[in-house]
Design a protein that fits this description.
The chain has 288 residues and is of the alpha/beta class. It has twelve helices and eight strands. It is elongated, with a radius of gyration of 24 Å. The structure holds NADPH dihydro-nicotinamide-adenine-dinucleotide phosphate. NADPH dihydro-nicotinamide-adenine-dinucleotide phosphate binds at residues 10-15, 33-35, 38, 66-68, 72, 75-76, 92-93, 118, 121-122. The site of NADPH dihydro-nicotinamide-adenine-dinucleotide phosphate (NDP) has 21 residues, from helix 1 and helix 4.
């Protein structure tokens, strides 16, 4: 199986890291990149430089794409109309719909398509914490799992080609909003002269113990019943209001607490003040 040839198109930091782990495992790797010089380093390590995308695609059944977005895939593979027998795995980030449309487009050209959403920085590609969400036909991942595992631990999340992008974006959501909350909280205590270092252990404690409430929250969200036993919306709204007032008083940004408080206000306006805070899922699902 390490003899299986792999083609990789797109040699940004991610694509280059993927080529390195594939070469290190012994796979013959053919590469193509729009800016040809970006292939120099991996070619020096043993990758074969294809002169055109068509030549790159012809070299392997398994064709991996690591591009800025899906538009780049159409530019590159547009002039390669016959993808019969090819398994195209697009590891680029884009919207769920972009992945669904791409699957249909590849299918029309005779190929098979898998969406990949990579949860790792370029430095972590091939290392233990790297994970990749895949969506599309499970048997396609099954057939190439051993090779794809080299990039990161593969997780098949469903047949709908958009799902891997949704899982990826859900992680970005948790990550970016969590980091924004960390910065805001640090600015809030910092307004009284507390350094980030002093606040750090409390931030870590909060971010590691808070997830303990999630199993009970998930159960209420899935049941659609929010009986008020997890902390009521009204009680949490009072905290959100104090956070907003305190942020305003010290002159730091108030957009984040305002957005949070708006969720609670809308739930209360809908008569849901006595529900568990998990009932906010309904105002988030339907913001009208
Ligand atoms: P880059 O944007 O740095 O590079 C991607 C590649 O896309 C380059 O080789 C570039 O070619 C090529 N490309 C872009 N547009 C076109 C086009 N129109 N025609 C031909 N080639 C094109 O991306 P990264 O390597 O950083 O990331 C790749 C994907 O992985 C992205 O979707 C990113 O969101 C995702 N990702 C990145 C992570 C990271 O830490 N970097 C982490 C997780 C996911 P050229 O060299 O000629 O410009």
């Amino acid at each position: 199986n390490v003899n299986q040839p792999v083609t990789l198109i797109g040699l940004g930091p991610m694509g280059q890291a993927m080529v390195r782990v594939l070469l290190d495992a012994g796979h013959p790797v053919t590469v193509w990149n729009r800016t040809a010089s970006r292939a120099d380093e991996v070619v020096a390590r043993g990758a074969v430089r294809a002169a055109t995308p068509a030549e790159a695609v012809a070299a392997s059944e398994l064709v991996l794409l690591s591009l800025t977005d899906y538009a780049a895939m159409y530019e590159i593979l547009g002039p390669v109309p016959d993808l019969t027998g090819k398994v195209v795995v697009n590891l680029s980030s884009d919207t769920p719909d972009a992945s669904r449309e791409a699957a249909a487009w590849i299918d029309q050209r005779g190929g098979k398509f898998l969406t990949g959403g990579v949860l790792a920085s370029a430095e972590l590609v091939g290392a233990e914490p790297a994970k990749v969400f895949y969506s599309g036909p499970a048997e396609l991942l099954g057939a190439h799992e051993q090779t794809l595992r080299l990039i990161g631990e593969p997780h098949h999340v469903g047949a709908d080609h958009g799902l891997a992008q949704l899982y990826y974006l859900a992680h970005i959501d948790l990550f970016l909003v969590g980091l924004a909350a960390y910065l805001h909280a640090t600015a809030l205590v910092g307004s009284a002269g507390v350094s980030a270092q002093e606040f750090l252990p409390w931030a870590v404690d909060n971010l590691t113990t808070n997830p303990q409430v999630l199993p009970a929250a998930a159960a209420q969200i899935d049941s659609g019943e929010h009986p008020g036993d997890l902390g009521t919306t009204r009680m949490m709204a009072a905290s959100a209001e104090h956070l907003l007032q305190a942020s305003r008083a010290v002159g730091i940004d108030t957009e984040l607490p305002k957005a949070i408080k708006a969720h609670y206000d809308r739930a209360i306006a809908a008569g849901r003040g006595g529900d568990s805070w998990t009932g906010l899922i309904d105002v988030i699902r339907d913001p009208r």
